[in-house]
Amino acid sequence: MRLFWLLILSCSLQPALSTQTVHRWVDSNGVVHFSDQIAAGSASETIEVNPPAPSSTPVTTITSSDSDMATAAQEPQAQPPYDITLQTPLESETLRENSGKVHFSVAISPPMTQPFQLQVLLDGAAVLRVPNQLAGDLENVDRGMHQIVIKLLDENGKILASTKETTFYLFRVSVLTQPNHQAKPKAGMN
Question: Which of 30, 135, 138, 172 is a good FRET partner for 16, with 20 to 30 A between their CA atoms?
Answer without folding.
Answer: 30
